[in-house]
Design brief:
The chain has 11 helices and 21 strands. It is α/β, with parallel strands linked by helices and about 425 residues long. The chain is globular and about 65 Å long.
């Protein structure tokens, strides 16, 4: 039986009102810092004739302009609030206009990043002396891998830096070093299980007890386990924990053992969930996550629109934390698909394809037809390419989404070269040619 010693920060044990009062104070401190050091935000406030000293509470945030990904792309250097000589680490994220956006982190920012992930690992039960296998890249200017390493180092856990991919190497490390925890993309766990079964590896009796899952959701919008999560745990008796983060946030929302959404860390970030008119939605309603970072020196952000569509849940969690939680990302605003009168997002397509064990790889491609409307092509690698199986896939799409995209069977070598590109930090399973 897997038992955990879960730790909740003292801040999360305060009442909801006390947490809000704390964040109000942190917001005022952040605004003062931006007005002293940020070229971008000083210019924005001047252009909009905003008296920043009048912004006292979270409620006042709605009076401020929003920051977009295009702003970050076009004025990247103007967001930097310190001298270049103070930057210790350079991380990047893909930009909306092609070039990557750079985030410079100071020594204090790296310490904040370490505390952020230390809290996440403690939430899922990792303790000093535990061994954790990192199955994600720590290079290529990727912030996440570095954050996990820093957090585990601060916690005093052992770290096996295997990196992404290569099931054989992953199993070699598991069998040799006996990690209790993994950090991995959940769909890759299915590939590891397939490799283990084919090579007679006794994975059911391995040292692994739990996985911190990144990059893909483990939950439906109802917060029930997704089909992907069910597939993994039906074969392997391990505990799966979902975590959600981004380079822009430098903050993780990690779920506890009760799986009711990723917990908010009040000292690190303020979040709003906004509708298409930039008004805050009701609790539990779908909207775009908009964030204000706290305690960042290098490149803090104010009311930054992430493009991620999700839901906030404010009820007290069974674990005892009074911080709200964020549900799974249900789509990205710019990836909205209007297909034959139905609005879709890629995660819904992924979920339908995950229903079939026969499908080993898939790639979703979106493009515009001659009429200017959206078209969907699903390229799949399957152990069954019969007409009957194709009809089963189409029936599942009709039942779940009320539409049937175009489906094309592919050879595994061809699709693997597209999905698992050496230069990419994670598998590419969605390509939007409309852009």
């Amino acid at each position: 039986m897997f038992t955990k010693n879960i730790q909740i920060s003292k801040l999360e044990q305060l009442s909801a009102q006390e947490i809000e009062d704390f964040q109000n104070q942190k917001l005022q401190e952040q605004l003062a810092y931006l007005m002293k050091n940020s070229t971008f935000y000083k210019r924005m406030f001047a252009e909009h004739n905003i008296d920043w000293t009048s912004i006292k509470t979270l409620v006042d945030l709605k009076r401020l302009p929003l920051t977009t990904k295009n702003d970050l792309q076009q004025f990247n250097q103007d967001f930097l609030c310190v001298e270049p000589s103070e930057i210790i680490d350079y991380s990047t994220t893909s930009g909306t206009l092609g070039d990557p956006v750079t985030f410079g982190l100071t020594d204090k920012d790296l310490e904040r990043l370490a505390n952020n992930e230390l809290n996440s690992f403690q939430r899922i039960g990792v303790q000093k002396g535990d061994v954790v296998q990192l199955m994600t890249t720590i290079d290529r200017r990727f912030m996440a891998g570095l954050a996990y390493f820093l957090g585990l180092r601060k916690l005093g856990a052992g770290v096996i830096r295997v990196g992404a991919g290569v099931p054989q190497l992953q199993w070699d490390s598991i069998l040799k070093y006996k990690p209790k925890y993994l950090v991995a993309v959940p769909s890759f766990l299915l590939k590891m299980l397939d490799y283990a079964e084919k090579n007679e590896i006794d994975f059911k009796n391995s040292s692994v007890k739990a996985v911190l899952c990144i990059g893909e959701s483990l939950r439906e919008k109802s917060l029930e386990p997704s089909l992907l999560a069910q597939k993994i745990t039906s074969k392997w008796n391990i505990k799966l924990f979902s975590t959600y983060a981004s380079t822009e946030m430098s903050t993780a929302f990690t779920e506890c053992e009760f799986g009711k959404g990723g917990h908010h860390q009040p000292d690190l970030i303020i979040s709003e969930i906004l509708d298409e008119h930039n008004n805050e939605v009701e609790n539990g309603e779908l909207g775009e996550l908009t964030i204000t970072t706290l305690g960042i020196e290098g490149m803090p952000l104010l009311r930054f629109k992430t493009g991620d569509l999700l839901r906030k849940h404010i009820e007290k969690c069974v674990c005892g934390s009074n911080s709200y939680r964020l549900g799974p990302v249900e789509g990205r605003k710019q990836h909205m698909i209007k297909y034959k009168g139905t609005t879709l997002y890629p995660p819904a397509l992924h979920d339908v394809l995950s229903h079939f064990d026969e499908i080993k790889l898939h790639l979703i491609e979106i493009y515009s037809n001659d009429l200017g409307t959206d078209e969907i092509l699903l390229r799949v690698v399957s152990t069954d390419e019969s007409e009957n199986f194709l009809l089963r896939i189409k029936d599942q799409f009709r039942a779940k989404l009320r539409v049937t995209p175009t489906i094309k069977f592919e050879k595994i070598d061809h699709l693997q070269n597209i999905i698992f590109r050496p230069e990419s930090r994670k598998p590419i399973t969605f390509i939007d040619y409309r852009e």
